[in-house]
Amino acid sequence: MPKTPEVPLLDKASLNQLLQDRFGEGLDKLSDIPSPSLLQDADKAAARIAKAVREGERITLVGDYDVDGVTSTALTTLFFRQIPYPLEVIIPNRFTDGYGVSASVLDRVDADLVITVDNGINAFAAADICKARGIDLIITDHHTPSETLPNAFAIVDPKLPDCPYPFKEICGAQVAWLLMALVKKELGLQTDMRQYLELLALAVIADVMPLIGINRAIVQAGLKQMMRSSRPAFVIIREFLDRSTISSEDIGFQIAPRINSAGRLEDASIALELLIAEDEQQAARQFELLDQLNQIRKATEADVTEEAISRVNTDDTVIVVANEHWHEGVVGIVAARLVQRFGKPAIVLSVKDGRAKGSARSIGDVSIYELIKAQERLLEKFGGHKMAAGLSLAVEDLDAFRKAINADAKRLDPTDFYPAEDILGELKGDSIDFDLLAILERFEPYGEANPRPRFLANNADIVTIKQFGSDRSHSRISLRLSPHERRPHEFLAFRQVLDMPKDRKMSCSYTINKNEYNGKTTIQMMLERIYKDS
C-alpha cells in the first residue's frame, strides 16, 4: 500500500486557481480549430473524393471495430448520405478479417477508390494490392506511422513527420471530419459540419484523447449537442442515461463500453447501425443488442482476468501472459485490469492456430508502443499509442518476446512506472458543498490530460463500512474528514471489499461527482486509492 502523499490544504478559491492553471493559454473555442488544409495530403485527398463523386466512381469506405473507428465510419456514411451518394461501407470483423484494410477485406471490394478511417497507416500490403488493381487508396488515420509509409494515393494523418497540422492528438473521427469538411468545400455543398459534433465527442472521449485545446472545445460542444440532438442514436442514449446533463464520464463508462462490445464479441456493424439509425425504433433495437453484448463482455472479462492474474510472473517489469481459450475481444480490457492490479505495463494475448494476438496497456510515463516496436523483429504486426497498443506474433516467439521486452523495460527510469497521482490537495469537510461542485463543473469535460480533480482524505475517522451490490463486492464508507464534523461524508468504493481497520482510521484519494437519482441531485464521493499511515 503506497504512502500517504503530502498535499496542500485547499479552499474554493485556491482550487479554482489550480484548475484554471491547467489551461495556461486560455480555453480554446470551436473557432480555434485549425484549417483542415493544414493536414498533409488532405486537399489532394478531398479533390480525389470530389472527382469520384462527380464522375460516378465506386467508392468503398473501410473503418475499424472500436468506438473511434465505428464513429468515423458512421460520420462519413452520414456525410455521404447528405450529398447524397452511394458508399460501400466495410468494418472489418476482428475475428475473420483482423485489423484494418487487410487483403481479406480487399478481396470483397470492387471499387475505384478506397478510403480508410481510423486505420491504414501501416497497411503496406493493402496499398500494394490497391496499386496493382488500379484502385486509388486514401488512408486517413491518427496512429503513429512507421519510418516508411504505405504506397497510397494520399495519406492524411496528423502524426506524419512533415504534417504541419498544429494539434497532433486528434482521433480518427476528427481526421475524417476535417477531410469531409474539405470534400464539402470541393463539391460546393451547404452541409453544416457542426451537426456531427456529438459523434466527434463520443469518439474523442472513447479513444482517450487529451481533453485540452480543440478537443476540449469539441467535447464540450458535443456533449451539449447530445442533450438536444434529434439523431435517433442519441435520443436512445439520452433515455438510457436519464440525466439532466451528459458528462464525459457518462460516455466513457456507460456508452463507449456498449458500443465497443459489438466489435469485441460479434461484429461492429451492430454498433454502426445504432449510430446511423434513421428512426428511434431501430436505434432502440440496436442499443438493446449492445447492452446484451456488454453483459456477456463483462462476464467473459471477469473470467479471463482471473485466469490471467494466476499466470502473471510478478518478477517481470512488463507483464506478458497468453492463453488459447481467452476471448480475443476482451484482452485489452484485461490488460488494463492487470495494470491496475500490479502497477506494471501489461500485454495479454489470445492464442489461436499458432498465432498470439492481443493488446497492451501501459502506466505512468512508459511508452508501451516504443517497447513493443523495439521487438519488431519478433512481431508479425503491431501498432498503437504510448499508452495502448495491439500486436500479433508466432507462438514460438512468445518467450523470446517476453524476455526481450523485459530486458528493455529494465533499462528505463524506474520513476517512469509511477502512476500519476494527480491529487490536488486536501479539503475541509465543510467546504464540500454545491458551490464547490459548481467550481468543478466549470472545468469539465474531464478526461485524459484534464483529469477529474482528486483530493486527499488524511487520517479520517471511519464511522461505518458496509458492503453493497448483488454480490456484495462494493463498499460504502462513512468518513469524518476532521474530528469536529457533526455529519460524516459517504464514500463509495466500487470493486473494493473493505474491512474496518483496528484504529478506525483511513487515508485515501477520492473524487467528487454530481449524482442524479429519482429526480434528486446529491454530491457523490468516489474513493479511489487507500494509503498507509504517513
Choose one word for the global shape: globular
Strand fraction: 15-25%
The number of helices is: 16
Question: Stretches where pLDDT falls below 50 for ≥5 residues?
Answer: none
CATH architecture of the largest domain: Alpha-Beta Complex
- CATH class placement of the largest domain: Alpha Beta
Could you tell me the mean pLDDT? 93
User: Helix- and strand-based class?
Assistant: alpha/beta
What is the rounded distance between the termini? 11 Å
Give me the side-by-side strand order of the main sheet: 13-14-15-17-16
Tally of strands: 17
Instruction: Write down the domain tally.
Output: 3
What is the structure about, briefly put?
This protein has 534 residues and is an alpha/beta fold. It is built from 16 helices and 17 strands.
